[in-house]
C-alpha cells in the first residue's frame, strides 16, 4: 500500500515549535486517526510502520510569522527538498494572492526537483496582517521581500547556494524591483506574465490619473476602482477557477483607490527603466492573456540589458499559466521553468545567449523580438485543448 508522507512544524499556544507529520492515502480517507506516542518516543520514525506501507515522501513544508520593520506580522512559508537544495527560489505572489495555498503547487513542484522554495505574504495579503489588499507604498512590499529573502540567504546552510527570484503578475514587478535594489546579489529570475508596463490598450488618460491622484489623499482605502472579474479572466480551467475562487485568503473585492494608483505608478516607473534589468531571466506569457498583455513581456525582453534572457509565449494559454490551465499545460510550463533553473543553478557557467521560443515549429520569429540580437527559435507545439495579480 502506498501513502503520501508529509511533515510540518507548528507553534503551540506557548510559542513552542512542535513537529507534526501525517500519512495520507492516495484516495479519499475512510476516517481520521490521530496518534499519541508514548513517553520518550516520537512519531516520525518510531510510528511510521514501514513494514506495512510504502511511503512516498513529499517536500517538507514549514511556515512561520515574522515582523517587518513597521511591526506588522507577516506570514512566511517554505518547501524544502529532502536533500541539500540545488539552489534557492524566492516566490513573489501576485496582487490579492498568497503563497501558502495558492502557490503550494509551485512550491511543491520546485522542491520536488531539488530547490528550496521560500514565500512571503505581503502586508495585507493572505495570512499576513494589515488592511486587506491596501498598498500604501509599493516600496514597502519590495523592502519586506528584500529583508526576508536576504535573511534566508544569509543562513549558513544556504550561503553558497545560488539565488533566484520567481514572480507572477504583480509579483514580477516585485521581483524586478528587488533585483534593482541589489543587482549583483541575484543569479536569475523567472517571471510569469509580469506586471512591468501598462499596455497602451488600457493606459488611463492623464486627466483621469490627475483626478484620482487628488482623491487618494481623501479616500485612499475606498474600494471604488471598477474592474472586471479577474479570476474569470485569468484562470482558464473551470474547475481550477472555482477552486481558486473558493480560497478565502485571496482578495476578490474591488481594488482600493490608493492601491490602484500604486500599481499604476509602479508599472509606469518600471516601463521607463526596463533597460536597467541586467540579471538573467526567463519570461513566460500566455498568448491569450487578457489580464496582462503579452506585449508587456515582449517589451521587457526587447529592452532589458540582460545578456542571458529567454522569452516563451504559449499559444492559447491564459494569464494563470501555473495554476489555471489544464494539468497537461501546467506540466509543460513547469518543465520549461525547471529546465531553465537547472541550467543556471549548476556550477557550470551559462553562456550569454538570448533565446526566443514562440509558437510551433512553423512559426517565424516575431520581428518585434529581433532587434540586432541573434535569436534562436526552438520548435514547440501547443497541446490541444498563474488585473495585476
Q: Mind explaining what this structure looks like?
A:
The chain is built from nine helices and twelve strands. It has 389 residues and is an alpha/beta fold. It folds into two domains: 1-55, no CATH class; 60-345, Rossmann fold, CATH 3.40.50.1820. The chain is globular and about 70 Å long. One of its GO terms (molecular function) is hydrolase activity. Residues 345-376 are annotated as: Disordered.
Write down the CATH topology of the largest domain.
Rossmann fold
Mean pLDDT across all residues, rounded? 85
In percent, how much strand structure appears in the residues? Answer: 15-25%
Classification by helices and strands: alpha/beta
Query: What is the H/E order?
Result: EEEEEEHEHEHEHHHHEHEHE
Shape: globular
Distance between the termini: 41 Å
CATH architecture classification of the largest domain = 3-Layer(aba) Sandwich
User: Percent range for helical residues?
Assistant: 25-40%
Question: What strand line-up does the widest sheet have?
Answer: 4-5-7-6-8-9-10-11-12
The CATH class label of the largest domain is: Alpha Beta
Number of strands: 12
CATH superfamily of the largest domain: Alpha/Beta hydrolase fold, catalytic domain
Q: How many helices does DSSP assign?
A: 9
How is the biggest beta sheet arranged? 9 strands, mixed
Low-confidence stretches: 359-387
Organism: Artemisia annua
InterPro entries: AB_hydrolase_fold, Hydrolase_4, MAG_DAG_Lipase
Keywords: Hydrolase
Biased composition (Polar residues): 361-373
Amino acid at each position: 500500500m502506498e501513502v503520501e508522507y508529509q511533515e510540518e512544524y507548528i507553534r503551540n499556544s506557548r510559542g513552542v515549535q512542535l513537529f507534526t507529520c501525517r500519512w495520507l492515502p492516495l484516495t479519499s480517507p475512510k476516517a481520521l486517526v490521530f496518534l499519541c506516542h508514548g513517553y520518550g518516543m516520537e512519531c516520525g520514525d518510531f510510528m511510521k510502520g514501514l513494514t506495512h506501507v510504502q511511503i512516498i515522501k513529499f517536500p517538507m513544508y514549514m511556515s512561520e510569522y515574522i515582523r517587518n520593520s513597521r511591526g506588522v506580522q507577516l506570514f512566511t512559508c517554505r518547501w524544502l527538498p529532502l536533500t541539500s537544495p540545488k539552489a534557492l527560489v524566492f516566490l513573489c505572489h501576485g496582487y490579492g494572492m498568497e503563497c501558502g495555498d495558492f502557490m503550494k503547487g509551485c512550491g511543491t513542484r520546485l522542491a520536488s526537483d531539488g530547490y528550496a522554495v521560500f514565500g512571503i505574504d505581503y502586508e495585507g495579503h493572505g495570512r499576513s496582517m494589515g488592511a486587506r489588499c491596501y498598498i500604501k507604498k509599493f516600496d514597502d512590499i519590495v523592502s519586506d521581500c528584500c529583508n526576508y529573502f536576504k535573511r534566508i540567504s544569509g543562513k549558513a546552510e544556504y550561503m553558497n547556494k545560488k539565488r533566484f527570484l520567481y514572480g507572477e503578475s504583480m509579483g514580477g514587478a516585485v521581483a524586478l524591483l528587488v533585483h534593482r535594489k541589489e543587482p549583483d546579489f541575484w543569479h536569475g529570475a523567472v517571471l510569469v506574465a509580469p506586471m512591468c508596463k501598462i499596455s497602451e490598450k488600457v493606459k488611463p488618460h492623464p486627466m483621469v490619473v490627475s483626478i484620482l491622484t487628488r482623491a487618494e489623499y481623501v479616500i485612499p482605502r475606498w474600494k471604488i476602482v471598477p474592474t472586471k472579474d479577474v479570476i474569470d479572466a485569468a484562470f482558464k480551467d473551470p474547475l481550477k477557477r472555482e477552486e481558486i475562487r473558493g480560497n478565502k485568503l485571496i482578495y476578490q473585492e474591488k481594488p482600493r483607490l490608493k492601491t490602484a494608483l500604486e500599481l499604476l505608478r509602479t508599472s509606469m516607473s518600471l516601463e521607463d527603466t526596463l533597460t536597467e534589468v541586467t540579471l538573467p531571466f526567463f519570461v513566460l506569457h500566455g498568448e491569450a492573456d487578457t489580464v496582462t498583455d503579452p506585449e508587456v513581456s515582449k517589451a521587457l525582453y526587447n529592452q532589458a540589458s540582460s545578456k542571458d534572457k529567454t522569452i516563451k509565449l504559449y499559444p492559447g494559454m491564459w494569464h494563470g499559466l501555473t495554476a489555471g490551465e489544464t494539468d497537461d499545460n501546467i506540466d509543460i510550463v513547469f518543465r520549461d521553468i525547471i529546465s531553465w533553473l537547472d541550467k543556471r543553478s549548476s556550477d557550470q557557467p551559462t553562456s550569454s545567449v538570448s533565446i526566443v521560443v514562440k509558437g510551433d515549429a512553423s512559426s517565424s520569429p516575431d520581428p518585434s523580438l529581433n532587434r540586432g540580437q541573434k535569436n534562436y527559435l526552438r520548435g514547440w507545439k501547443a497541446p490541444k485543448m498563474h488585473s495585476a495579480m
